[in-house]
């Protein structure tokens, strides 16, 4: 089933060639392969080389050295038209186009398959309809592009890429302009497209959460331009995620697979309750406020209780006892009574988290 | 639920209704073109009855022999120049608007008219001195544009500017850079013209400014060059409709779909040079037609598909130019208005409308 890779590189160096000067190499010695049936997410901090790699792989930018093979053939041996039949691209920039319907835009994807006038044959029409259906944009077909929302436009652009009938679909940050539900929807669509026999999807993306949850494989650049490839879980276990992205006040939680803002430590609390959603979200809230949950030797205990179907939170320490009916009240109380610890710390502590100063001290100021 | 289904059906019907409406509209504009063409032959400073006009066209001798001269030697070439010149400018404007993805681009955006005026300025203002005051005199008596020297000078001027732009564009990836370069070349040539004007006699300056007004008054000899060149260039632009449509998505998408950007761009620039250059050489720099007609066309046909827009702009551009020419000749009077001011008065409101209301129609500014 899994034959030759659709894209493979050997000792590829990517970067920028400049006149009369040594080329700037962004990353070197890349040996990567994109197999049929795979959804690969390319991630890395800004400026690490994601776009350079994508642009090099699709032939929009020359490589510094090394070889790129597309479907078993050297990329440089393809004519533009031949390449367009194997590989289609969805770029980051938004298209602004007036007087043009979604159907017309998707039809343009048939460009490498139609004659001089671009007239669609019956087969072309079927492919356009199929592509619109595959991204769930059937009902957008007769709408004008300028009437569509960002998410709808992106679906149409992906359908256009699909109408090219490519083996490889490459997308440069397809989720950049979208809100979270739409990001997830686009990823779901892309995942389903990658399951088509003989096709692979490669995309660059900023959202690690989403990448970790959807990708079959992750290609990762760290700040130094070092490249890692593997299943998301492998990369997490190797600890490369953390080192690639961490900065002051933010760190990668390898248990949860997400980046979290590290708040200032306020102390330990015990949390008692059944193993249910209330427990999970209460512990989230406490961690966000800077408390570590360690169910022994703490001054403060919080118990999640339930009476007649209503949840409430009981706070108690050696002397005091209070009931709260929302997490917000509980956290507000905690920060009022225990917030002084944080408030009296020397100012130099703020400067450790310049970009997250607000979040690091959400309460108690 | 029911309502949305109904809306959906409505949308579908609109969609289908649209493709059916296009040929009808095309027919309508074709008829309108012929109507204005006929009207342009009939109307003018001398009143020639409709019957006489037709008998002249059919090769019969009319009652008044002077009508034959007026129609065959003045009005017919003028109407042909207007129909083909207007079509050429409109299509050239469409090509430039698509290539540069800029709604305000027109056939002269790359400095074609500036180059032409420099050529004409050099001939009229510098070398016009050779024949002293006789040149402006001669030009006015024979019809200024009748001078082949002026046409050749204009064509050399516009071609020179375009050659430079074309040459530079081969080394440049971004269309925006080329657009700005074209504008800058335009400024340089314009300033040279201003310098020439500054040091010239008022007589010659007047002769030069008459050229800048533009006119469709041309002779048969010029028609025999103008019309074939325009027909060839129009056919060539129709052959480029597929890459033009691809360019609507932007250069990156177009290249990724297999279009060769540098080749398409060179073709488009050469075709525009032919269309706008030849019209400017014989008729002078005619303002606004080339910018306004593509917008009108996109609005009327409600599409950005060049397979419809190229023929649409041909018909609409020709028709509007004939209309403008008719107004410029103020039927029933001996006065003529500068053609460029008529086309500006017709064209500028279209641009204003596009800028103010283009977005409110939900279709965006028509790029």
Shape of chain A: elongated
Helix content of chain A: 25-40%
Largest interface: A-B, 41 and 35 residues
Q: Which H/E pattern describes the elements of chain B?
A: HHHHHHHHHHHHHHH
| Uncertain stretches of chain A | 341-365
Gap between N and C termini of chain B: 36 Å
**Broad CATH class of the largest domain in chain A:** Alpha Beta
Rounded to the nearest angstrom, the radius of gyration of chain A is 26 Å
CATH superfamily name of chain B? Answer: ABC transporter involved in vitamin B12 uptake, BtuC
Low-confidence spans of chain B: 1-6, 8-17, 129-146, 360-367
Q: How would you sum up the major sheet of chain B?
A: none
- Overall tally of domains of chain B: 1
Helix/strand/pairing category of chain B: mainly alpha
CATH architecture of chain B: Orthogonal Bundle
Helix share, percent of chain B: over 70%
At the first level of CATH, what is the class of chain B? Answer: Mainly Alpha
CATH fold-type name of the largest domain in chain A: Rossmann fold
Task: Figure out the total of helices of chain A.
Answer: 14
Number of domains of chain A: 2
